[in-house]
Amino acid sequence: MNALEYFNARLNATISPMDYLRSMKMNPEKYFLLDVRNGPKNLRNIIIKDANVIPEQELKNHLDEIPKDKEIIVYCWDVWCNTAAKVAKFLLENGYNVKELTGGITAWKEMNFPVSKSTYNDNVTNNCGC
């Protein structure tokens, strides 16, 4: 793969927080935002506003909650975490249209974009799995 192919693939597989926010405002019905973070619940209590929470550890049991007719935007902790990439790969293998939100919730919060409290109740272990 040459540099041009790499950057084309990267742009096709990811979306920046700014691009997602702009696109979501223009066409909110197109997207399904998915928080897939594992780890301690007290650290996952803040989510991107209107995100759907299904931790990676529970994903296989909740596939029926993820629409196949929308573009799925997955995110995890930050650029160092690969949980969202693992989930994106799994969902793509199962027929979903998926992109990863670049920088995860860390980049989102750094830009002071809207967040909310999570009300999702789960049994996720404290192991992040990144």
UniProtKB/TrEMBL annotation:
Domain Rhodanese span(s) in chain numbering: 27-117
Protein name (Swiss-Prot/TrEMBL): Rhodanese-like domain-containing protein
Pfam families: Rhodanese (PF00581)
